[in-house]
Each structure stands twice: as structure tokens, then as C-alpha cells.
């Protein structure tokens, strides 16, 4: 047990940058860390408040329907779905692609202890989701039922165990994909295909259940009740909190801990073998030297970035979700029709609102393709190699930006064509929508790499710590939300009659922003890169 504790402690200190924050002698570094901490706290509080405001009107409807217990059910179901979704593409990076595998296996600790430490670290990350998504609806239930101290004690205890089963299920799916892919040479390809199939399923399947919204809560009650009965541990959770029953609470805690422990016990037997297998590199046995090809500097750097990107399972799965979401949205519009998609997403996709809503959806998908926000950090301790080469810094930075654009621009072209035919858009609207989205394809990666230069994370053991948990990713996300949010808020306030003209003005603003950012990249960005 001591070995598990020390491994968890080392993982937290290394991944969350605690040593750097506490022991840094630079005043600027301390200020930057403090501001980042305040920004995280602010974002967490705002998201919690938003969830509370979403559940509050639902609580009123359920009170009238005498079905208030569904608030508890919605709490654990939403938390389970979020935790499961996050685990599916987060856990493989912890279980299969961590850099210190050889080091940990050489230590006098059991593979089960290594696995347990990594799974508990994932649990700590998912616990934040349980608090953010689950607690607001439970508080609203407590307000409506005048729950006392015992109820809130039950909530606190139960919340600690909620992520265990979804994490175990997500890890089991990752384990199955790992076992299958470990038998083939193209392990990354199989893992990526399997993971994206599961992610797309989680995007599509919930929206195929009709009637689950606040306006049709009554018709959704049988469907939700059926799901609760199928997931038996959620029924234990609901009965434990609604009746403050200690026996049901004990049963829920026992089942959750048993499932989590059983997974660790079973998986630890093949943990070492799978990781050893997946770290193997295959070379052709009949390789022959023929001719050597030469290419320009930019092409060589771009190919290097592309090969590294495709070789990293966790890098692809955490940065390509945006373009996958864009494709799912466009195909859903083409297959189900705009009215059905508008109802599922609760978007005003009718009349003059079509183009702005699509522009907002595309902007969200493009902005959340965080390739450049982690590209400098992923150089890791080998950054000195590329810095020592006789290359222009601008070429190095732009090769990473071009990789990001390689994902977003082709996806944008395909999806623009799909929605243009689905909505029968005019030529002017299609051109404006394309230009607006194209400018975001330029602005977003430039912002990402500039932020990464200011918030580099070069010391890491797992790529997950860089592409999901680094300050660079978080700050880039906040900036992108602001860039998307300002035009959206202005559109709501102004309600322009000519939406194309409004989008053209947004294009002008984005073009100016792109020019400023590119100039900053060639000056401030180059300077920051040389200082790393």
C-alpha cells in the first residue's frame, strides 16, 4: 500500500507541476501560477453555477410531476456518462503510452501497484467531473426536500464513489482495444479506429433518444427510469440519497469499490505484457536501401510533425475530436434534417439564424482542435535537438501550425459542402461561412502555439499530462471561448437583419486579429522559443 501511495504522490507532483509552483524563485513565474490558479477556480465556479441554473427549472417541473427523485437519477446518469466518455480517450494514455513504463517496471513494486496508482490518479481527475456535474442537481433536490445534515453527508460520501464504475468500464474498453491492437503491427491505427467509433457512438446515441428535454420531461420519465433499472448501481444510489438509507448507501459503496478493485486485479495480470507488446517497433524484414530523397526545410519539418502526430495515440484522440464532432454534426443535418438536429441540440436553426448557428458550431469544433497548444511541450527534454539545428525558428513554429491546419481545413471544406447542400444556402452565404471558418483555422493554431510558448510543460512522463492537463491547453481554451463568445453575444444583442453582413464584419475582425497574431509570432514567439 505504501508503494501505491508514493507512486500517486509522485504522479501528482509531476503532472500538476506542484514542485515548479512551490519552489520557483522567479517572481513572474509565481504570478503566472497564481493567476492561472485563480482562472481555474473562476472557471470551475462559473461552470458549477451554470449547471445549477440548468437544473433549477427542471427541479420545478419534477416537483409538479411528483418525480423529484429523478434529479438524483439525472445526477448520477450525467456524471456516469461524462466520466465514461472522458475515461475512454484519457485512460489509454495512462495505461499504454506512459514514458516511464520501463522505469516503473524496474522498481521493486508489483504491476498491480503501478496500475492502481495510475487508475487512482484518473479517479482524482474524474472526481472533479462528479462534483461539477452531479452536485448542483443534488443541492437542488436537497433545497426542494429540505434535506438535513445527514442528507448532505450522504451526498459527500456517495460522490466520492460515483466515478469508480464508469472509470472501470472505460478502462475495460481501453483494455479490450489494447489487447486486440497488441496482436497487430498497426497498434495505433486500431486503437484510434476503435476509440473514435466509441466516441462517435457516445455523441450520437444519446441524441437518438427522443423526448429527453425539459419541455417533455413527463414523456422522458419512463425512458430514464428504464435506464436506471438497467444500471442497477444507480438505483442503489437513488434509494440511498432519497431515503437517506444507510443500507443502500453501504451497498452502493461496496458495489462501486468491488467493481473498481476487480478490474485492477484482473487487468494487472496482463498489464506488463500488453505494455511491453505495444512498445515494440516493427521494421520490414526485406528492407533495402534504394535511393535517398531530399526535400525542402518546411516540407521536412512538416513531415516530421505529421509522423510524430500520427504515431501518438493520445495526441490524436485528444486533438482530433473537434473535427470528428464537426463531421458528426454535418452528417446528422444531412441524414436527419435540420429540424431534428435543431430539436436535439436546442439550436435556433431556422430562417436567418442558420448560417450564424452553423458558423458557431464550426468555430467551436475548429477552436477545440488543440494541436499547437501542446506541440512545443511534446518536444519534451528533446527540445534542445531541434533548437541546435541550423533552422529558422519561424519554420519550426509554422510547421506545427500547418499540421493543425491540415486537420481543420480539409474537414472544413467537406463539411461546408455537406451543410451547403443540406440547407440549400446561397453562394454568398457559403463564401462568407467558409471565409469566417477559414480565418479561425488560422487564428486558433497561432493562438495555441503562442500560449504554449508562454506556458510550456517540457517535463512529463505521460503525454496526457500535456495534451489534457497542461496550463497551455486550458488558457488556449479560455481565449478561444472569448473569441467565439464576443460575436455570439453581439449577435444576440443586436439581432442584425442582414446576417451575412454581420458575418462579413466578423471576418474583417478575424483577419485583423490574424495579422496581429502572425506578427507577434514572428517577433515575440521567436524570442520566447529561443528562451526555452
UniProtKB/TrEMBL annotation:
Q: Where are the transmembrane segments?
A: 33-58, 70-89, 120-143, 149-177, 189-209, 221-238, 245-268, 313-336, 357-376, 396-423, 430-451, 471-494, 501-522
Instruction: State the protein's name.
Output: ABC transporter permease
The record lists the organism as: Ruminiclostridium papyrosolvens C7
What's the source species' lineage? Bacteria, Bacillati, Bacillota, Clostridia, Eubacteriales
* Swiss-Prot/TrEMBL keywords: Membrane, Transmembrane, Transmembrane helix
Question: Does the keyword Membrane belong to this entry?
Answer: yes
